[in-house]
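>> Question from a student workshop board

For tomorrow's exercise we were told to take the sequence and the ligand below, predict the bound structure, and bring the output to class. My setup keeps failing. Could a helper post the expected result so I can at least see what it should look like? The ligand is S-adenosylmethionine.
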Amino acid sequence: MRYINHAISIPLDFFHMTKPSNAPSAQEQFDESTSRRIEAIYLTPDIVAQRNTVLALLAPQQAERALDIGCGPGMTTQALAQAVGSNGSVVGVDIAEPMLAIARQRCGASPQATFALADVTALPYPDASFDIALATQVYEYVEDIDMALAELARVVRPGGRVLLVDTDWESAVWASSDNARMRRVLDTWNEHIPHPQLPRELKRRLEQAGFNSVQVEIVPILNLAYDPQTYSIGMMDVIGSFASGRNGLTAQDISAWKADARAMGERDAYFFSLNRYVFVAQR
Ligand SMILES: C[S@@+](CC[C@H](N)C(=O)[O-])C[C@H]1O[C@@H](n2cnc3c(N)ncnc32)[C@H](O)[C@@H]1O
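>> Workshop helper replied:
Here is what the output should look like for this input. Compare the format with yours to find the bug.
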């Protein structure tokens, strides 16, 4: 009887956090071609502005030891290297080798920036190795969030600062002349990560992992024209490649979805907005 009670008392969260999703792994998603696409999107004015806002919220200081978790193509690592200066250091870690190759090349002129192939759930650093750590658009890809947050809490020194950015695509407003098709594409896109709604629970999970003074901010992305140099138009290729062939969406459906966005632009009716959720906390 005691055994049965014990079994029933396992919190539902336990199943939520360990249940494997059907999302492809980060290594599968970030091959060489997608990594280059992401690099181009992250150089658009939309994401340059987002990066500036995010870095201002983290406020890196000269001589600090920084960790860029899931550094991707390394633009944030490069900015952190500049901010901490030659007396500081920044380590970029990522699980996808093609991303690390781009990041290493980008930061070649900054000896204070180094890189390592590592999983966020097993960071190869001693306790309290860093003064600051940041992960932008990374934790939503990680199956075991609590393990990742425990690692974050372990490697950042007490009193250090952390910043996380994640997206909930339910916050997207994307005008279309075929709302049902837009819904199908976005619902399918939600399947590319194990935690498409992570921002809704991240404050609580950070607090449970031992972080305090958790502040939550929104950084919106707003595109009012069909312009290839914007985040949303850049993302159409990435989203389209993922959605094509899934949930009954054909290559023709995706072509029609893209053509509709172009046509919306020609009618001066293009509209896209999306929220990034930024969490700043103290260890
Ligand atoms: C959308 S990109 C964001 C890149 C970068 N943080 C930025 O904002 O410029 C997500 C990155 O997280 C990395 N990633 C995902 N899961 C990871 C894991 N378990 N461990 C380490 N890196 C991971 C991916 O390989 C990819 O480079």
